[in-house]
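dumping these here so i dont lose them again. two proteins, back to back, each one seq then structure tokens. dont judge the mess
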Amino acid sequence: MIEAAGLTKRYGKTLAVNNLSFSVAGGKVTGFLGPNGAGKSTTMRMILGLDNPTSGQVRIGGKLYRELKDPLRTVGALLDAKWVHPNRSARAHLLWMARSNKIPAARVEEVLETVGLTSVAGKRAGGFSLGMSQRLGIAAALLGDPEVLLFDEPVNGLDPEGILWIRKFMHRLADEGRTVFVSSHLLSEMALTASHLIVIGKGQLISQSSTEDFVARAAENTVKVRSPQLPALRAALTQASAQVSDVDKSLVVSGMDSDKIGEIAAANQIVLHELSPQTGSLEQAFMQITGDSVEYHTGLEAEAAEVVAAAQ
């Protein structure tokens, strides 16, 4: 388990993380989300003792990172896929890490096989593509067979097959009872990967909940309806106090569930061609809830935020 309490980090006059408290439990994949500049990378660095908090603390299994003996056996992390000496081979890089934490050399071959790098293990890491570097970083995180794993943008540079692999792999790690904490900007991927979310903005906690609850809290569920008798259906639904919008030769209904809509249509002898509930997406929920915490907006992002807000 990871537990942060009152975590604060200042860089001069800049407050990067502000009194941040949260916990990450084992047995699930927890996503760590926030707009650019929210303090995610700083927080992960403080978890690993790479940056010292200005105040507060974060513990892994009840201990500060610096208190861990042979820390790679407790926590594995991928924060920067290119953090490898370019002239070292993948195998040499992992062997060096293994020796530093008294990990058997045989484990190096195991993790190389796990991430699919056995065939290139003797090649210089400096010549690796971003996707191969990501796999090497994941191998390094797995080296000590740790109970706690941190990944920062782990699918960067991976092809679709690699993204599917890392998603299933994270689920397997969580199913084994491990603590899996992953930061990513790919919200569509996080919706498929993480069952729990910690969301921050401007260095502060915005939400800690299940992914399902986070989406449900922000997005209003609607029902899409298609019918050859749209004017009559619209009138019947409006009379029943539903909110109805016309969208591409169909109606989008809010304030009424699909069962009630079907009953109203049947009572008015109206034929339906489609009656499908529309649930909100993680992307919509994220943009709505974190909108006030975004520090850097382009014109297109501002326009997108307005479109999402209008759709809610």
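---- next one ----
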Amino acid sequence: MSDRVSRTAEIAAADPNRVIVFDTTMRDGEQAPGFSMSANAKVKLAGVLRDLGVDVIEAGFAAASPGDEEAIRRVTGEVEGPIFCSLSRANEADIDASYRALQHAPRSHRRCHTFIGTSPIHRTAKLKMSTNEVMSNAVRSVEYARSMFDDVEFSAEDAFRTEPEFLADIMEAAADAGAQTLNVPDTVGYAAPEEVRERFAALADRIKRRHPDVIFSAHCHDDLGMAVANSLGAVMGGARQVEVAINGIGERAGNCSLEEIVMALKVREDRYGVTTGCDTRHLVRASKILCELTETVIARNKAVVGINAFAHEAGIHQHGMLADSRTYEIMRPQDVGFEGSWFVLGKHSGRHAVAKRAEVLGHVLTGEKLAAVLAGFKRRADEIGEINDAELLGVIAAVDGTPEPVYAAAG
């Protein structure tokens, strides 16, 4: 077993309140239908994640296919900075594949992530193993991985449907075998936030007595829409690594969204008392590039990076924003990579927003003229929905009695 210090250990030792961001977009995210990525795409995305300041990149599952092993090898050979990780089942062949794939990365920046199912349904239906056999395989795989890697993570798959006592036993055994990161995954999105907080706190209370430097990690799925909330619960329970994906992609309903939890920890640092190493100004860029690489789109109302995240149509909101953006925005759009907020003019907009946009377009509207333009604006908005600059100029022209060509020219 190596006595070298991994990059993970250095990060944890430098600040106990620093949450390690572990991105699994290229592994768990890619396993979702419609999100498969080529080696070139993975290299490009890894560069974006490096710029974002992600600590650990799980670049793939080397044993899944020769192509996946080669993609990991390319990523680690062409991108420098983060810790690179490959997933492995609890067997020597998988761990060997991870070692081959990660050989280009500096030794301190290589991680083997080994896992085994621990819940009753996984033990009986999938693995056909007893608790003793699962325990033996877990320990043996961690010991083998530690003979090759300075940084080993162990995951108890389906942890939240595993008996609490057995979960604690196998986690402690993995730590005894040399795993420095213990992942407690909510593999099927079954848990609830308070339950997650309590489970992490209990595990930390037991295991950190013997292994004070071990890092607990959260990997939460979104089957019930609680992946981010559960990950925050884990942080409150002592987790200092969160496993996430850009745009929340991943198996079934997806993973904890990278952009959402990073901004939650940043905006509510007063509550959570932790930080990350992410440069959040790259969040929108990361989201857009993933969409381009996978030819997918995200919902307009997607938190943090959706097109509506900093858009305002309602008149009351627009009035408040004109007075002070903090009335309706808890974070600055520039902090996540947008150029700024924007108003959408539509039937919900009020006189303040219409007058402000008209002024930008060169028309000062007051008194009766503003009232007339607003009335025409509302009628047109009921007909077509969103009012762009050309439509607004057309309304103003109609009120002024300007000939129709002015309206057409505005388009």
